[in-house]
Design brief:
15 helices, globular, 5% strand, 2 domains, hpI Integrase, Chain A, mainly alpha, 358 residues
Length: 358
């Protein structure tokens, strides 16, 4: 069904309506394989059919759906929620007052502190949003208003050449961090679970989402190691290994706590209400441990543990293919960023220039 471009009584109501409709259309295209509770997704789909009354309600809904496993929703919801607040301040009377220059200004302002990858995501979300409106709006004469938003040549949002190198911990910091995991005063009820999930990410380099989607059937024993079957991006399977001595006692301790509280979740990592843990919760715990251990980084989230694992793996092995396989990168080009941290290779440049000066 098509709608008049200015379908509602006010600009704010109309913009919220189009965002609601667009997100509904995107949810139907995103993979729901990792969704833990299908009813949450079904409920969200129903709300996104005219049930959204405010942008705050939309924020809560998108967060709920993302925490339930539909991670891709953030790529579209977050930029459009920010765009709503930005355009709200203009006092527009019609959607037709939005043009490409206003959207370029929005990206320049709202993405000034973001990475090039995040800027690209904002650009993709906005182009997709207005492209959707182009196809779905129709007036009484069966004509459509076309925005034709392209957002070309916006700063450094294309390509990866301008991206910052990721934050990571060196060996000394890793030792301090591991000591921090062991000593941080977690609650007795959750200490084994919290230490287990963080060590699992740190020692294997798996993504936080991959850890939170693990089930008991995904872990098997192989001598001194655990073999863990992981489903990565695009549901591509891979195998990672971890020495039993790092997590076996934590796995057993968490199983005792699960039994004590009668938890039945099929996922290893759940809260005491039997609901899956969220990535935000894991990242908050990582940040607490970093502060406890006196480690300061530009980015302190749990994903930094993956970068630390990959950096150390490359430094010790000098094997880029091994890094690619361990991290589940589809292209070795993605893994190549970790060669920037190989100081032994870089040190050769000092000897070369030194010989020149001699």
């Amino acid at each position: 069904m098509r709608y008049n471009l200015d379908f509602k009584n006010t600009f704010d109501e109309t913009l919220l309506f189009w965002i609601e409709r667009f997100l509904h259309s995107k949810i139907t295209t995103l993979s729901s394989r990792n969704v833990k509770n299908k009813e949450i997704l079904n409920s969200a789909m129903r709300e996104l059919r005219g049930g959204i009354k405010s942008i705050e309600q939309l924020k809560v809904l998108s967060k709920k759906v993302r925490n339930d496993g539909l991670i891709g929703i953030n790529t579209y919801a977050n930029p459009l929620i920010k765009l709503f607040y930005y355009l709200k301040g203009f006092g527009f009377a019609s959607m037709k007052e939005i043009d490409e220059e206003i959207l370029k200004d929005f990206i320049a302002i709202s993405c000034s502190q973001l990475s090039p990858a995040s800027k690209r995501n904002h650009r993709i979300a906005i182009i997709g949003f207005f492209g959707y409106i182009d196809k779905q709006n129709e007036d009484d004469e069966n004509k459509s208003y076309i925005f034709n938003i392209e957002l070309k040549n916006i700063g450094d949002i294309r390509g990866k050449s301008g991206e910052k190198l990721p934050s990571f911990m060196n060996e000394n910091e890793l030792n301090k961090f591991i000591n921090g995991i062991n000593l941080f005063p977690f609650s007795e009820k959750t200490i084994c679970r919290n230490q287990l999930v963080i060590k699992l990410i740190l020692y294997t380099g798996i993504r936080v989402s991959e850890a939170l989607n693990l089930k008991y059937k995904d872990i098997s024993s192989d001598g001194d190691n655990f073999i863990i079957q992981v489903k990565g991006k695009g549901n591509k399977p891979r195998i990672v290994m971890i020495l039993k001595r790092h997590i076996e006692y934590l796995l057993e301790g968490w199983n005792l706590q699960r039994n004590k509280f009668g938890l039945k979740s099929e996922y290893i990592f759940c809260n005491l209400k039997d609901k899956p843990l969220t990535q935000a919760y894991v990242s908050r715990n990582v940040e607490k441990i970093l502060a406890y251990a006196g480690i300061r980084k530009e980015k302190n989230g749990a994903h930094m543990l993956r970068h630390s694992f990959a950096t150390l793996l490359y430094r010790k092995s000098l094997d880029l293919v091994l890094v690619q396989e361990a991290l589940g990168h589809s292209s070795i080009a993605t893994s190549r960023i970790y060669t920037h941290f190989d100081t032994s290779r870089l040190s050769k440049t000092t000897s070369i220039i030194n010989n020149l000066t001699k």
